[in-house]
Task: inverse folding
């Protein structure tokens, strides 16, 4: 069995390496020659536990090689980025370009799978493109959509153990794709159609987004009514059928903060709650920034001098170095540009940053007049409280 993976990023590389580790001969294709060269040296260009050892082993064994162009194979996988454009519409141009790159290599009996998070109908659109270019392959190849739902930091375990949803353009395609994944996935393989599989991935992230929006909305209501939102949620969750998530300073990352827009932009009339959830979570970041600016003005008024503000955390969630779509980064940027203050920026998971001059967390805390807790990093949790400072806790550090 020979497979080609198009895109060797956070998802494509671990999946390609996991398949190679189970005896499949894999060619990983990327448009970046730096990525290709790094992998062919048995090294990796992303941060993911244990991936370096696996990639080194499969490259040395000859079961994984990287290349700039695809080649003939039994199965092809599209694992390229799907960002959104200015208007929140999904940009599927990478999926289309990777699909067009493999079209010349497709042969009768091949399997073609899209893994990239994609708007509904993307698989059908790519199917049309394939058959327009290669009409002789109609009904002779298998095409499916199979989304990825792994947690960065635990990717190799979850790749093997998570259930997968596999949506073929017909039942034969679902069967063929399930047979492929069955070689390295121990989780249950749930077969459905392509549209349902596409919508399933978007639904998972929209559901998380809506649940966090509920908690964020509560946090703003509680602030107005002088109720501790953390205590409130803990008490409400004592109800056997209530499970409210924790509020934060917004929602970030390249999945939950992005994918629900793919539903909203395609179904603007119907997707009311999904849209409001996205807006609520984005608004929460502005609300937090405005609270800090208010505290800054109050401090200057009371003390007749500008405060030192410590912004604690930049990442989009605790204990990672990923700043993509991070509300903490957005809030910090707003404070830097709008506050009359000295702003100290802290992110213990990053050594240096091209925009922010990072300060060690204890030093920033000690120097600050106003401390803004943005991310619940483990380093911050047990820091001693200095009651002379104003603390704004948006992530439950002091709950
Ligand atoms: N990272 C995650 O946690 C995660 C989880 C679930 C789903 N996804 C989805 O998986 C997809 C891939 O995400 P990622 O995080 O791996 O992205 P990434 O940016 O880490 O990697 C994508 C790679 O594709 C390469 N590429 C771009 N165009 C190409 C082409 N035409 N041919 C070959 N390679 C090409 C890029 O150079 C890059 O190395 C996205 O749709 C994403 O939404 C990601």
Result:
């Amino acid at each position: 069995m020979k497979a080609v993976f198009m895109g060797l990023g956070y998802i494509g590389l671990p999946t390609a390496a996991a398949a190679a580790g189970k005896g499949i001969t894999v060619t990983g294709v990327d448009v970046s020659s730096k990525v290709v060269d790094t992998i062919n040296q048995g090294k990796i260009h992303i941060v993911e536990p244990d991936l370096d050892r696996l990639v080194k082993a499969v490259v040395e064994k000859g079961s994984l090689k990287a290349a700039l162009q695809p080649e003939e194979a039994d199965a092809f996988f599209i694992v390229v980025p799907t960002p959104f454009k200015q208007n929140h519409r999904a940009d599927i141009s990478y999926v289309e370009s990777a699909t067009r790159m493999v079209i010349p290599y497709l042969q009768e009996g091949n399997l073609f799978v899209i893994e990239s998070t994609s708007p509904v109908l993307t698989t059908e659109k790519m199917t049309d493109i394939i058959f327009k270019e290669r009409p002789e392959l109609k009904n002779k190849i298998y095409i499916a959509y199979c989304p990825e739902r792994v947690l960065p930091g635990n990717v190799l375990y979850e790749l093997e153990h998570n259930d997968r949803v596999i949506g073929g353009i017909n039942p034969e395609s679902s069967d063929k794709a399930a047979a492929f994944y069955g070689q390295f996935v121990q989780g249950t393989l749930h077969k459905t159609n392509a549209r349902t599989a596409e919508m399933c991935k978007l639904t998972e992230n929209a559901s998380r987004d809506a649940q966090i929006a509920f908690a964020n909305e509560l946090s703003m209501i509680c602030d107005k009514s002088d109720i501790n939102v953390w205590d409130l949620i803990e008490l409400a969750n004592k109800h056997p059928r209530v499970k409210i998530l924790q509020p934060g300073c917004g929602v970030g990352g390249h999945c939950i903060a992005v994918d629900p827009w793919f539903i909203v932009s395609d179904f603007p009339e119907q997707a009311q709650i999904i849209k409001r959830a996205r807006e609520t979570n984005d608004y929460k970041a502005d609300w937090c920034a405005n609270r800090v600016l208010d505290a800054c003005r109050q401090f200057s008024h009371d003390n007749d001098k500008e405060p030192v503000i410590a912004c604690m955390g930049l990442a989009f969630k605790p204990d990672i170095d990923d700043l993509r779509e991070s509300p903490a980064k957005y809030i910090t940027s707003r404070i830097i540009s709008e506050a009359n203050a000295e702003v100290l920026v802290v992110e213990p998971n990053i050594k240096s940053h091209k925009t922010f001059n990072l300060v060690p967390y204890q030093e920033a805390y000690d120097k600050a007049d106003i401390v803004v807790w943005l991310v619940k990093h483990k380093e911050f949790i047990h820091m001693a409280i200095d009651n002379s400072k104003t603390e704004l806790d948006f992530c439950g550090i002091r709950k």
